[in-house]
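REQUEST FORM: STRUCTURE PREDICTION
Request ID: SP-0412
Submitted by: Lab K.M.
Chain count: 1
Length (residues): 141
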Amino acid sequence: MKAITITQPWASLIALGEKQFETRGWSTSYRGKIAIHAGKKVNEEAFEDFKAIFKRHGITSAKELLTGAVIATANLVECHKVTNEDHENDIAMTDGPKISGQEYRVGDYSPNRYAWELDSVQHLPKPIPAKGKLSLWEWEE
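STATUS: Completed
RESULT:
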């Protein structure tokens, strides 16, 4: 299965169903099942920004976030190019959907980046330790 390593807290936001688009500086033609791997790095400042979201899930500290493991699977359905953004109104325009609200706030929607649309996210009840890699990589379940 293809996998992508994502820095925390963004990996957990996806696993918890709070983030449907992963933003990247590059596109992919791959579509299909993808493993969400939580990298070893935790951006504690970002965790503080999203603390209210995590609190709804019973997570009160960045130290509680899992690292170095596959924590979810999803279906990568599309890759949309970001064409414009409106910071004041929390809106990003893509060549597909308009992204706004919380979804906008949990991503980097700078023009010419890409919003990878995910659906059918399945949070794994037990994380599976794995070493992450750059780009898309093959993960053996």
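NOTES: The first strand starts at residue 2 and ends at 8.
Reviewed by: T.R.
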